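Cross-posting from the modeling subforum.

Setting up a comparison between two proteins and wanted a second pair of eyes on the formatting. Protein 1 (sequence, then structure tokens):
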Amino acid sequence: MNDPSFGAALIEHSTYRPRRLMRWTFAPQLLLLGMIAACGGGGEDSARVPPVTGATVPSPAPSGVYRCTMPAEGPMAVPPETVMGGQIEGRSDGSFVMVSHRLWGVPHVVLMLGPDMAGQGLISGYIDAVPERLFCPSDDGQFSNGAQSLNGDYSVSSVYLKLEIDPAQGLLSGTLRDYGADGAVQSVKGGPIVGTLFDPAEPSSIAAAVGDWTLSDTAGQPAGLSLAPDGSLQLKMAQCNYNGWLVPVNGLNLLDMSLRAQPGCRLDTYETQGFVVLLPLAAGGQQLMLWGVDHGWGFVAHAIGRR
């Protein structure tokens, strides 16, 4: 599981329940290679869900393997790295902050969701799409390229996200096919993050985020973050302590994040890579948002806070 070039099945509705870790949810990229083997995998069965990269459409699958088709929206190209805001139409939690960034060497498009991300400062869920990968969650279905988790639930539902991002114009548009809602296709639009003074082209700054932050996750549970001027940080979540670092991203107003749980925590053998977005609010103050995935592709950290 140390190779991020994973190539197995996306879990559409996981029933796995780790012990209560309020801010760590089951990631869409967790690949159950061991489970496939336990179910008679290996050999020819190991090809049941072959990886598909880029815009390549797979050839017809041989008998006995999953057969998925490309959604009508077509393949999603890997977007440029940027940070924008927007809205998924028809959803009460459709306000989002979108980050397009590489994690563990793989491009991710992460939508952090809420009722009003800049106005209320609440996070109710996230969507994580991996444009370079297609997943076949079930027989004779349609491909997905990511998943969403809502309201602190450990389970995820598969989605197909298709976005076109134009950083020069500061605009994004596209669709979200939500397989957890019977495959409903929702319109996605975005641009500058409303209610903020955020400019994705400005150099990122650790200094602006230094100090103590009170955060909360998608389940509304509290967390604490302390950031030193050198970028070192301490994070307390779910009765566990994490040490880590923030590093400015070259050419993008974003901070790379690295975390490692201390002994005795659920993830004490894993490193987590992610990012921090610091939003200067038009009404005054700052909003900090963090998101990250561990090296085993099994858990996601997500939190938001203001000061």
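Protein 2 (same layout):
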Amino acid sequence: MLVVALNVAAAAFLWRMWPRRDEAQAAAPDDDAEVVAREPFAPSDGDFERESVPTATANELVALAPVRNSHPRRATSPALAHDLRNIATDAIEELRKATKGKITAANTTVAIDVRELGAGVAGEIAVDADQSLRPASNLKLVTTAAALVLLGPDFQFDTRFETVGECKGGVLHGDLVVRAAADPLYERGGDGDIEALLAPALDEIARADLRVITGDVVLDEATFLEPGPAPEWPSKDQWWAEFCALSGGFSANRGCVTVHVTPARIGEAASVSAFPREHGLLENFGVRTQTGVSVVVHMQALATGLLVSGTIGAKSATFSDSCAAPDPVALFGNALRGALARRGVLIQGRLRRERGVPAGTVIAHLRSPLAKYLQAINTDSTNACADQVFLATAYATSGYGTREAGARATKLALDQLGVPSQGLVQVDGSGLSRSNRVTARQMTALIEAVLTRDERSAQLYRDSMAVAGQTGTLDKRMRHTPAEGVVNAKTGFIGGTSALSGVAPTPDGRVFVFSILVNFPEFDGINKNWKDMQDAMCVRIVKDGS
């Protein structure tokens, strides 16, 4: 009776939390939105995705068991299962005709798993639900779930500043050492400037009366991996793009340089600015102002410099976009050095990267809550933030900030949640790699387990997902349907992969967890068909309680 009561309470809590249609938030582009005026100098058509609290330690892992209920209030409608299968069959047949037989039922897998929250597997709808498939950005739900379970909902990234050497009269006769914590150091919806994010640590340094550093600013990367692309990422000619931003022990502005272009008079050079302010790259700007409002701006950050060229209409608003920095660690270091200089700290040495520097005296902390980044990951589908969280989870639980340690941490989280890990392959946190694999049943079991865990984790997890027809990568989907403002989900797209997983409450008070994973031969321009199919399924699930 206690278990049943707990499930009823959990379901009631989640229903109260659910967003209503008037809770609109800031929108973000879809995972596979067309990229306009964001080309590199060598454009290509590749695949892509688009309050202070205590710090948790590796020994403070949350160990609450997920709530289970083998007595659902109502069995899943047989008609729902029938209709979902028909929607999938119709979508494949439509694409078979549109692609002249390139897409068929024989070479395409549409995996579906739908279950009622708190009902276990009773009444579960499963179609190819145990097939291990590419999840694309749906893997971000796995990454964030593992972080919430292993680190706890109140975890904070903690980048420590230590002095090594004698500090007397405002002069440090030695080095300032900064310890890596894999913080994305990113402000969702910001302009790319990280000065305000660094301010709390800089204030602490000022209170320590540190005005001169005779030695170096040392970035201790500890055991974090050397920044670089994961296996089976998009081709090298796409690494300039924001969705391919690299990750490591340090990062700034999620490993990207953000550029702002403001038109001038017709025929004159437009004003171009880049953030973080000191990004460490040689600037080569050349954007001309022309008549009209059109914007065609090319940008690319390479080791040789930051290149920005193109045209912008004189009547256009300021154009802003980001591209991946060649090295997120160097980006952080240069931004930090510039911020220290603006605070009046004289650095006589250089910026240096090391591993395993002996402990010094802690004088400042740069802390960022995990909760701050969850919407950037699951609503906006920001790849580098997900990859940073993946590495941070690995480091906090094992002492190694590598992809291999991240995969082990995820399996540990699944074990704690009671979710089988067979069929799961994880090589990054974002889902950008084509090597990643997961099953639809794992996705629904994972989502359900987090949502029936502790209330804070459940709310953060649900709130991190996009809202149908309103926010993030779902802002233009399921509009003017019963699913608008009701369904919370994570999208996913890379070539040959389309996915949608999340939660759908029904008008009669039930809550369904669903996962729809589609793997198909790569064929340009057909993801809209799969999105329409997924949306139709969500609408049908919501209608099941009408």
